[in-house]
Design brief:
By secondary structure, the protein is α+β, with helices and mostly antiparallel strands. The chain is built from three helices and four strands, in the order H-E-H-E-E-E-H. Strands 2-1-3-4 form a four-stranded mixed beta sheet, covered by helices on one side. The longest helix is centred in the first third of the chain and has 12 residues. The radius of gyration is 13 Å and the shape is globular. It starts with a helix and ends with a helix.
Length: 79
């Protein structure tokens, strides 16, 4: 019961802060800003270009996320 309540609180009270690099994250930044809003999408270095040179990656609420395509990254952002 308590875990379910915490999950609902997290889902509705904390907007995702998404950080992607405009040079190496391979993410369409304008598409992300349209979907999640300018306030939730930050553009800048995520310090991971050597980790996932050819993948799609960024940070969601400070957690590094690397996936195979842009749609998977968007799904991770929606969680």
């Amino acid at each position: 019961m308590c875990g379910n309540l915490l999950e609902r609180i997290r889902r509705y009270s904390m907007p995702n802060v998404i950080r992607v690099c405009d040079k190496c994250s391979n993410i369409d930044i304008e598409k992300m800003k349209l979907k999640f809003g300018d306030n939730n999408v930050k553009v800048g270095c995520v310090g991971a270009c050597r980790k996932a040179k050819y993948g799609y990656f960024g940070k969601i609420n400070g957690v590094y996320v690397s996936v195979n395509n842009e749609d998977e990254f968007i799904k991770e952002c929606e969680r």
